[in-house]
Amino acid sequence: MVRRFDAPPARVYRCWTVPEELIRWFPQRVEGSLAVGTRSTLVFPDQRVWWDVTVLESDRRFEFRWPWLPGDAWETTVSVHLERAGYGTLLTLTDGPFDLRVPGVLDAYAEALEGWGEALAWLRGVVDFSSDLRPRQY
């Protein structure tokens, strides 16, 4: 997925890597650190999800692993790449791999597409408009 933001890369990067910024647009709470090599837990209204931060490149790249399917039966790597685009930022997000031959992974892939589309809209609301667009339950 590719999205353009009006904010500079440093602002968008902080929204992924600083817990106080991350909770403004994604989970309700972050338990743990967002440092490389650490496992954190993201707390959403209806679930808790771990993620392991694997790459931090200041203002350019953030990468983590996280689970899909019951019992963490499938894990993917999410890469967020940021590049300057005029006065703003071009964000490219990839999540995978999704082996569609494995039972349940097609549903996880569909959930990822829908979920990331919604989450990136929430991120844009915070970064570009200082507005929390998440449903009220957050």
Structure description:
This protein is an alpha+beta fold. The chain has three helices and seven strands. It has one domain: Alpha-D-Glucose-1,6-Bisphosphate, Chain A, domain 4 (2-Layer Sandwich). The longest helix is centred in the C-terminal third of the chain and has 25 residues. The two termini are 24 Å apart. The model has no long low-confidence stretch (mean pLDDT 96).
Features:
single chain; 138 residues; alpha+beta; Alpha-D-Glucose-1,6-Bisphosphate, Chain A, domain 4; seven-stranded antiparallel sheet
Fold blueprint:
Blueprint: E1 2-5, H1 9-17, H2 19-22, E2 29-31, E3 39-43, E4 48-57, E5 61-68, E6 74-85, E7 88-96, H3 105-129
Antiparallel strand pairs: 1-7, 2-3, 3-4, 4-5, 5-6, 6-7
What is the subunit arrangement here? Answer: single chain
* Number of E-state strands: 7
Q: Please describe the biggest sheet, giving its number of strands, its sense, and whether it closes into a barrel.
A: 7 strands, antiparallel
Low-confidence stretches: none
